[in-house]
Specification:
The radius of gyration is 22 Å and the shape is globular. By secondary structure, it is mainly α. Helices cover about 65% and strands about 0% of the residues.
C-alpha cells in the first residue's frame, strides 16, 4: 500500500532523502515496515507472550494508584470537594485520547506507541518530538511515583515495627532530605523483575494489581462509615479555576492507560487485544478513582487535606480510631505504587527500544538478550537513571512536568488518527473511533486546555526539555536515522 499524498515508498526500502532539510524532516515510515520490523532488535527478538488479561493488567498496573495514593492529597486543596469533578474531567480528557490510542494500537501494533503512530503519519521530526515527550512521560513518572512510595513505606514500617526511616534518607533535597533511598530501591526492584522477562513481569504485576484493587475497595468500605454530607456543602469553594488546576494535576494519575500500546510487539494477538485492553483499563480505573475520591472527601473536610501523599492511610486511622487499618492501607499502597513503577518502567524501555531500532537513539537500547527476550542494557540504563532522579527531585515538580509531556503526546495521537484515516482509509482497523474526526478533535482541544492550566514554571521546564531534545535529534538522530540511508540496516530474523 502507498501513503496517498506522499512519495512512493516500498515497505522494505525507505525513500531516499528529499532534496532539502524540510523533506527529510517530514519523511514518514510506512505502516507496513513498522509492523514488519515488530519484535526485531539488535541480536534477538522480543517474545510474544501476553494475552488480553495481561495487557489489561499492564495498563491498570501503570495507572491505578498514582493519583489516589499519591496525588489526591495535593489536588484536594486546589478543588475542594469538587476534586471528584476534577477526576471526571481528567478522565474524559484521557477517554478521548484513549479512543484514538485504541484505533492506532489495533492498526499499528508495535512497541513505539504514539511515537510510532506519529512516525507513520506526520513524519520523523514530529515523531521525535512525540518520542521525547514519552521519555518525559514514562521515565520521569517512574521517578515521581517512586518518590511517593517512600512515604507509604514509612507508614507501613511505623505501623508494624514502630520505626521509620529518617527524613534525610526518605525524602529528596528540597523536601527536607538528602537522598530518597526508598525511591531508588523500588525502581531497582522493578528492574530485577523486568530483566526476568515480559511474561514473568506480567505475572508479578497481575498479583500486585489484585492487591491494590482490594486495598482501595477496603478503604471505601471503611471510609464510608465516617462519611459526612456536610463536607460537600460548599462543593466548589475555589471555583472552576481550582477544578481546572486540580484536573491538570490529576491527569498525572491517568498516565499509564496507554502502557498496553507499548507491548504491541509482545502481545499474542496485538490487533485484537490492544484496543480492548486500553478501553477496559480506563473504565475500571476511572470508576475506582471517582469512588475513592468521593469517599475520601466525605470522610475528611477538604480543608484538612495538607498535600500529604499518605492521605488515605490517615483517613482510615481517623475513621476507625485504629492504626491497624491505616497500616493495612499503607501496605496496599506500597504494593500498588510498586506495580506502577514496574509497568511504567516497562513502557519506557519499549519506547526507547523502538526509537533505537529506528536509529534515533543509540543502538544499545535495542539490544535484546537471546535467553530472556528482553532489552537488558536498555532496562538497566533506564532504571538507574530513573532511580537517581527519584532520589533527588521533589514529587510535585515531577508530576506537573510529566503531565505536560503526556498531554502533548496525547494531543499528537488525536491528530495522528485523523491523518491516518485520510491517508490510509483502506487499512483494516480492529477498532474505529466513533464520530471521527469530532472526538479526536475534542481530545486535542481538551489536552491543549489542560496544558494551559499548568503553571509557568512547568512550561519553562517543558520548553527546556524540548530544546534539549531538538539539539540531540539534530546532532545525532537526524543523520543516523535508518530512513536517512538508501538501504535499511539488517535486523535480526524474527522467531517463527
Amino acid at each position: 500500500m502507498l501513503d496517498h499524498g506522499a512519495p512512493p515508498q516500498s515497505p522494505d526500502r525507505p525513500s531516499p532523502p528529499g532534496p532539502g532539510t524540510g523533506a527529510r524532516l517530514m519523511r514518514r515510515k510506512p505502516v507496513e515496515r513498522l509492523v514488519e520490523e515488530g519484535g526485531q532488535g539488535e541480536g534477538g527478538t522480543l517474545r510474544r507472550s501476553l494475552g488480553l488479561w495481561q495487557l489489561t493488567m499492564i495498563s491498570i498496573g501503570a495507572t491505578l494508584g498514582t493519583g489516589i495514593f499519591v496525588v489526591l492529597g495535593e489536588a484536594v486543596p486546589d478543588a475542594g470537594p469538587a476534586v471528584t469533578l476534577a477526576f471526571v474531567i481528567a478522565g474524559l480528557t484521557a477517554l478521548f485520547s484513549a479512543l484514538s490510542y485504541a484505533e492506532l494500537a489495533g492498526t499499528i501494533p508495535v512497541s513505539g506507541s504514539s511515537y510510532s503512530y506519529a512516525y507513520a503519519t506526520m513524519g520523523e521530526l514530529v515523531a521525535w518530538v512525540c518520542g521525547w515527550c514519552l521519555v518525559l512521560e514514562y521515565g520521569v513518572s517512574v521517578a515521581a511515583v517512586a518518590v511517593g512510595w517512600g512515604e507509604y513505606l514509612n507508614e507501613l514500617l511505623d505501623g508494624t515495627i514502630g520505626v521509620t526511616l529518617p527524613d534525610a534518607l526518605s525524602a529528596p533535597p528540597g523536601d527536607g532530605g538528602i537522598f530518597n533511598l526508598p525511591a531508588l530501591i523500588v525502581v531497582l526492584l522493578a528492574m530485577v523483575f523486568l530483566l526476568g522477562g515480559a511474561r514473568e513481569s506480567a505475572r508479578a504485576n497481575t498479583i500486585m494489581v489484585a492487591v491494590k484493587i482490594t486495598a482501595l475497595l477496603l478503604f471505601c468500605v471503611i471510609g464510608v462509615q465516617g462519611f459526612r454530607s456536610g463536607n460537600y456543602e460548599n462543593f466548589m469553594p475555589l471555583g472552576m479555576a481550582g477544578v481546572s488546576a486540580a484536573g491538570a494535576t490529576l491527569f498525572f494519575s491517568y498516565i499509564g492507560f496507554d502502557a498496553a500500546s507499548t507491548a504491541g510487539e509482545e502481545a499474542k494477538n496485538a490487533q485484537r487485544d490492544l484496543p480492548r485492553a486500553i478501553m477496559l483499563s480506563l473504565v475500571i480505573v476511572t470508576a475506582l478513582y471517582v469512588l475513592v475520591a468521593a469517599v475520601a472527601v466525605g470522610a475528611r473536610p477538604w480543608q484538612k487535606f495538607d498535600g500529604s501523599e499518605a492521605a488515605l492511610a490517615g483517613i482510615m486511622k481517623e475513621t476507625t480510631g485504629d492504626a491497624f487499618w491505616g497500616t493495612v492501607l499503607a501496605a496496599g499502597a506500597v504494593i500498588a505504587i510498586a506495580s506502577v513503577v514496574l509497568t511504567v518502567l516497562y513502557g519506557q524501555t519499549r519506547i526507547l527500544f523502538a526509537m533505537s531500532r529506528d536509529g534515533l537513539v543509540p543502538k544499545v537500547f535495542s539490544r535484546v538478550h537471546p535467553k530472556t527476550g528482553t532489552p537488558r542494557a536498555n532496562t538497566v540504563i533506564v532504571s538507574l537513571f530513573c532511580g537517581v532522579l527519584a532520589a533527588a527531585i521533589p514529587l510535585g515538580q515531577l508530576a506537573d512536568a510529566t503531565s505536560i509531556g503526556t498531554l502533548f503526546a496525547f494531543a499528537l495521537v488525536n491528530v495522528a488518527v485523523v491523518v491516518l484515516r485520510r491517508t490510509r482509509p483502506e487499512m483494516p482497523r480492529t477498532f474505529r473511533v466513533p464520530l471521527s474526526p469530532v472526538l479526536p478533535a475534542l481530545g486535542f482541544v481538551f489536552c491543549v486546555w489542560m496544558m494551559g492550566s499548568l503553571d509557568t514554571v512547568t512550561w519553562v521546564v517543558f520548553g527546556v526539555w524540548m530544546a534539549v531534545g531538538l539539539v540531540f535529534y539534530f546532532s545525532y538522530g537526524y543523520r543516523r536515522s535508518r530512513l536517512a540511508t538508501p538501504v535499511a540496516t539488517p535486523v535480526a530474523t524474527p522467531e517463527k
